[in-house]
Design a protein that fits this description.
mainly alpha, 434 Repressor (Amino-terminal Domain), 8 helices, 71% helix, globular
Amino acid sequence: MNINLLTASKIKELRAKHNLTVEAVAGMLKISKGAYSQLENGHTEITLSRIEALSQIFNVSIADIIPSSVVNNQTNNGDHGINVSNNSAHTVNNFYTNEESLESIMQIIKKALQGQTGQS
């Protein structure tokens, strides 16, 4: 299973856990019910900004949305479309070592992307 499908499954699980409807979450994201359904079923790519918004809606960290098993499987055998050498596997594992690291990296990425688009 690829990262998009695993993340989509986690989002669906979190929505159900919070007793929210597809319509409610779609409304909070300001997208159509159909667009949200496509996202939750893994039919569309999930962006970092969408993951960040969902983390706020579900009141969880970004790390809680991205399944940790995805990172472990990718670094060990590349089954999910990411090929890493033995040298880089430790770097990827260290990148996702803990929730705080992931949150910090996400903030750096967000700031970098905003700087490229001229947003603040």
